[in-house]
Structure formats: structure tokens, C-alpha cells
Amino acid sequence: MTPAELPPGAAPPAAVGAAGKAGGATMDGAGAPACGRLRTRIPAASGVTNAATARDHVLAVVRGREGASAVRPDAQAVTDLLLVTSELVSNAIRHGGGLVAFAATPTREGVRLHVRDRSAEIPSTAFGPGALPAGDTVGGYGWPLIATLARDIAVERRPDGGKIVSVLVPLG
User: Fold this and answer.
1) Separation of alpha carbons 102 and 84, rounded Å
2) CB under 8 Å to 8, separation ≥6 — which residues?
3) pLDDT digit string (tens) for 120-168?
4) Beta bridge partners of 164
5) Cα 81 from Cα 58, distance rounded (Å)
6) I need a surface site. Which of 55, 85, 137, 146 has the fewest CB within 10 A?
């Protein structure tokens, strides 16, 4: 989102990406997710309230993508996409104060996921090396899985509260 596209009086979003550069998902003036890199409006998926409904929505997006593309993702790529979807939505619900919005957009490379929650806190391991927890640790596997299976990870704090996590999961 360029400064000219910001609603009147709105501050530019603060974003943190894997490379430490500004970018990632933003929300347009109507509250729908929009990708800052693509400057494209992305309508929020209606009816997505938990990990199961998010996975159902993502499967529908993949089926639509297959119809428009000669390349069909293999079963492992779709499984990886569904795992990342589950982890992002579950993290928003468990650690982010609840799921606010979810969008899945097909791209040439795969599917871009956007998850908005109510917490502005950026997970400390969001941009780490993706190492699994050591020993008998309970929990802490979600972000390493996301970091391993997705790319182009961005976390953006929203000036009106919360954050948006945006990732690209390759399918080909």
C-alpha cells in the first residue's frame, strides 16, 4: 500500500519481513486483506472461523487454481499447504486473541495465505532458523513448520490493532 492509498489520517503500517524489509499483507480501506507487494485487493474468506474451515477454503482455492493452470500440485505440496494453514489459524486463535480475517490467494508459485488476529505481538521465533524445539518441550513446533514449508513470510502490525501474518506456500 502506497501512502497515497492509505485512508485519510491513517499511519503507514509497520511491517517486518523475513529479510527485515517492509512489505507483507495490509488491509485496504474497506477492511479486506490486500497484499502490499502486489497492491491487489484480496477479499476475506467468508465462513472461515477455525482451522478446519480454513483448510476447506484453501482446498477450494487449490481446486480453482488447478482448473486455471496446467500444473497440478502433488499430494505432498497440498499436505504442506494444509499444515501451514492449520498452524497459522490455530496460532491466531490460541496466541493472537482470535482470528479476525483469513484469505487464501492463488499465485503462479502456489498459494499466499493471510491471517489477521487481534494481537500486535510478533512471535519471537517468526523469523528464526526454523529449528524444532529441543528436548521434551511441549509446543513450539508451529513456527518452525511454517518457516520450513512456507517462504516470503511477513508479519505486519496494524495501526488499528492486531497483526497480519502473510506467507507463500509453494505448490510446484
Assistant:
1) 13
2) none
3) 998 877 776 667 666 666 667 888 899 999 999 999 999 889 999 999 9
4) 116, 156
5) 8
6) 137
